[in-house]
Design brief:
This protein has a single domain, classed as Rossmann fold, CATH 3.40.50. The protein is built from 7 helices and 10 strands. The radius of gyration is 16 Å and the shape is globular. Bound molecules: NADP nicotinamide-adenine-dinucleotide phosphate. NADP nicotinamide-adenine-dinucleotide phosphate binds next to α1, α3 and β7.
Length: 209
């Protein structure tokens, strides 16, 4: 089962790719520029150069499932939120359907189901995540939607919580998100499920049961 990683050169993307390689899970890393390929080549990870703002259908060739962990990031304006976080994700889902992929794993965001509850500055981004998630849910594709809280660069604690009350905080390390992506990829029977994920005290298998 080969997994296309959209956003592979990002922080979560790279951590996931490394963990997948260690676990023997075949991945195809979608990167935007040829000069990003070296990091993956040194680890024996296949890459494909493609851009969410261009034609990226070819990236899906030979893949059975896809992970979307791309993002426009905090340093771009609303136009990139629309084109990458919203329309890029929607197009990725549509291509996955056309290409007959078996599953789609979306990295969404905690409380994306209620964008207006976010701080004002984050609402357009949350609305993009809301709409991309909705598009995936109503597609014909089996899906897993992961909703991490605020991302940190701590090492993986490998312990998780399912909501803020349980966690006592709203954070999760990117490395813990990478672990949860690996778990989702390996649980091939996991479908049409959504999980809020935070750093906590429980096993991942328990939180994602
Ligand atoms: N920040 C938070 O607190 C938070 C909370 C919840 C969820 N999330 C979600 O977590 C995910 C990843 O987070 P992260 O920290 O790993 O982000 P990141 O390091 O900024 O990685 C984002 C990746 O998206 C890629 N990308 C951007 N535009 C693209 C395009 N047009 N075509 C193809 N790829 C493109 C970037 O490519 P380059 O490497 O070429 O720039 C980068 O590799 C995102 O989906 C984000 O929305 C974030």
């Amino acid at each position: 089962m080969t997994t296309l990683v959209i956003g592979a050169n990002g922080q979560i993307g790279k951590q996931f790719c490394e963990r997948a390689r260690e676990a023997g899970e075949p991945v195809r890393a979608m990167i935007r520029h040829e000069d990003q390929a070296d990091w993956f080549a040194r680890r024996g990870i296949e890459t494909v150069v493609a851009d969410l703002e261009d034609d990226f259908v070819h990236a899906f060739d030979g893949c059975d499932q896809a992970i979307f962990t791309a993002g426009s990031g905090p340093h771009t304006g609303p136009e990139k939120t629309l084109l990458i976080d919203l329309y890029g994700a929607i197009r990725a889902v549509d291509i996955a359907v056309e290409k007959g992929l078996e599953r789609f794993v979306m990295v969404s965001a905690m409380r994306a189901e209620d964008p207006m509850s976010a701080p004002e500055k984050l609402r357009p981004y949350m609305a993009a995540k809301f709409a991309a998630d909705a598009h995936l849910r109503q597609s014909a594709l089996p899906y897993v939607i992961l909703k991490p809280g605020r991302l940190t660069d701590e090492p993986a604690s490998e312990r998780f919580a399912a909501d803020v009350d349980e966690a006592g905080d709203n954070r999760i390390s990117r490395d813990n998100v990478a672990l949860s992506l690996l778990y989702a990829v390996q649980q091939t029977g996991l479908a049409n499920a959504e999980f809020t994920l935070l750093d906590g005290e429980r096993d991942l298998a328990d939180v994602m049961a």
